[in-house]
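SAMPLE LOG
Freezer: B-3
Tube label: C17
Construct: single chain, 391 aa
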Amino acid sequence: MITLRGKGVSYDAPAQARGAATIRLVTDPGRPFPLRSREGFLVGSGEVPEGFGWYIVRSTWSERADLPGPLAKLSPQFDYLDDGDVVRLVPETGAIRVLHRRSTPYNSFLLTERCDNFCLMCSQPPRRVQDGWIADEIMEALPLIDRGAQEICFSGGEPTLLGDRFLNLVRGAKSYLPRTALHVLSNGRSFAQESLARKLAEIRHHDVMIGIPVYSDLPHLHDHVVQADGAFDETIRGILNLKRHSVRVEIRVVLHRLTIPRLTKLAEFLVRNLTFVDHVALMGLEMTGFTRANLDELWIDPVEYQAELEEAVGILDRANLRTSIYNSQLCLMDRSIWRFARRSISDWKQEYMPECEGCEIKSACGGFFSSAKLRYSRAIKPARQISSIND
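STRUCTURE (predicted):
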């Protein structure tokens, strides 16, 4: 696992420089002077130029030479930071938060902890807090992200509860990252207001996808899973409004004991009613957040629902609906659906179990969330390579 936030960073800076700062880490001593104030120079063995907002050294740095500006010495778990990464320095508490890593193709920003759903398996349990400052921090970070970034994600909580602030962040992503895809994770309910869907479309982001969960073809079951009466109707209206304005939509289905019995019926519902959506993601359960509290109601060994998964994938694929399987292990699946499986778990929380030792397709398998140590399938075993996972 990779640590994204923590304390133990040693700061040495004058009082006027000890406020929190969002900076981009750089290794090029020839950076243009107008940019240096919002950058942190990663000190190595070469030249140490002047003018940078911060000077960053790794935990192994032991030289005593004076640096021409405020110093932050990383604790060992952050020594992986490198050129192009964006971090938030908090000198008052000795903390650091990694906002964006250049080396990984997918980075996620939590926009708010507030939500109008309380999903039984929510991995980020909502809180009733005033956290608009988060949006301000993200807006500071967007201009610092490498323009070659493949994709960023806005998540929550429920991002659309920010209203105009949410739309402004989408505008910021469009302006500062003109070649970067934007994936927004939303419950879709706010888009039941046609005006919000229209305003989002009018931004004309070049590559935006709204990922929206639909947990059943039966409204009352979906509402139970998300713990919100009327949520199903609002979610479906939201999807229809987004597609009416040509905004791309992904349907996300978390696989657990409450959703599996209607999984094939849900696939048929999508094919009959929402065949115009752009992607369907069938997602393994993450053992964190509310899932832990509701595990007895939610847990089903994934090996027990493989027949339903295979049938649902077939229904969606035959209707030409682009379909993926996330957060799942290849050794549990029939080889006929391996081509739909994706390595979807972020590298900072991806692990493999002892049973995976010796597996010939481990590099192609999605592995596990680190939280899966709490409970995972009894059927995990090493698998043998075939000619191609995508055959």
